[in-house]
User: What shape does this take?
Amino acid sequence: MTAPSSMETALAPEDIRAALDGLLERRTDQTRLTSMGAGSDDLDDGRAYLAATVDGGWHVPTWPAAHGGRGASVAENQLIGSVLREYVVPDLYPFAIGLGMVGPALLAHGTAQQQDRWLRPIASGAEIWCQMFSEPEAGSDLANVALSAERDGEVWRLGGQKTWTSRAMWAEWGICLARTDPAQPKHKGLTMFVVAMDAPGVEVRPLRQMNNDAHFSEVFIDGAEVPDSWRVGDVGEGWRVAMTILSHERAGAGSRGGGDGARRGARVPPWIADLVALGALGTRSDNALSDTTPADTALMDTARRDEAMSIYAADMASRWTAQRAADEARSGGSPGPAGSGAKLRTVSSYKRRAFLTNRAAGAAGMLEDGPGHIETVTAPSMSIRGGTDEIQRNILGERVLGLPGEPRLDRDVPWRDSRKGLL
Ligand SMILES: Cc1cc2nc3c(=O)[nH]c(=O)nc-3n(C[C@H](O)[C@H](O)[C@H](O)COP(=O)(O)OP(=O)(O)OC[C@H]3O[C@@H](n4cnc5c(N)ncnc54)[C@H](O)[C@@H]3O)c2cc1C
Assistant: This one.
């Protein structure tokens, strides 16, 4: 018997439902879930969901069975993803770096020992990961990372500061981009390491965001030791590993993983149902939102209905494109610039949904638990995390449209010289 090709599947939706019915609750029209960690610190639900699904390999189907997946083809992965939308999949924000970014990077660049040690605890939710890339002087210009790693026999000693490290206070492990050779040009002297977040010399200081979450932290590292066996990829190959991680981050934004997606087959998605319940779309005769004349109210209802339908159409296109990019990545390729387009569309949909709901709620929308409030104050961060909108547009301009690249004066000079303010 030959193995199924990437677009064939031996699985039927009923097989998947038969397995998942014993493990998960079905979604109903009343099911409401947060997304991207907005307003939620819920670790337990995510952990319980991942622990329940790991033996069948249902959440990361394309990973090998030995590591918490089921070796699924692209087609099987898509099918499982669509059936999973019928079930309550909690907001997996705390686990997303392990599942969506570190896992694929370890599969692409990790050693067999690293895969054996780290992949299954990611898939089962037993261990949380954070991503230690950004620094005070390295955000959009990520290759300017200064945190140093110096080799001392079989260990590396790390020193420096990371910032905006989401989930660092929950994380057992951090994937950390460090400078191992300051004499090389900035992209070439970097190496990727795994850091134990409870190691001596690692200090995590949480920061509070304007949506009142404290999901991200500053991380100060002073002489923390990392065994050479925890280096991911070759010395000097950190940029390549970082690009794998970032392309998965961008492609993954908005695809599988609970959140606010509509239940499959549901007549309207929950956010539109919420607008209807608010009376914001002219669908309730006792519209309590407005003290204007009936003619004005009708006009506002029409404008909101237009906006809601326009968001819905863009949202569906965004979901399918994000899913395609994520599937490309899972089938062995890298999502590449498609991930940047997917991220821009996902962010735009998220913002428009949040603002429409929040504005429609009027004064009530200013309350912390008012309709669309948490999403509205979370929305600006969506344009920054994972690389800003401007950087995504630069990537699309250069790699999809073939426009001239930005001037990069420091690309070929030693990093330590480029930091003297000359370039
Ligand atoms: C909620 C949240 C979570 C985050 N989580 C993590 C995490 O877990 N791990 C991690 O490592 N980082 C994380 N970050 C950091 C994030 O990746 C950076 O904030 C982002 O890359 C931007 O870097 P910066 O903040 O240094 O801004 P800067 O790079 O200083 O940019 C400032 C402004 O200049 C613009 N700009 C900069 N360069 C260009 C250019 N070449 N062309 C056009 N415009 C440009 C930017 O678009 C931006 O508007 C997180 C950020 C947020 C908001």
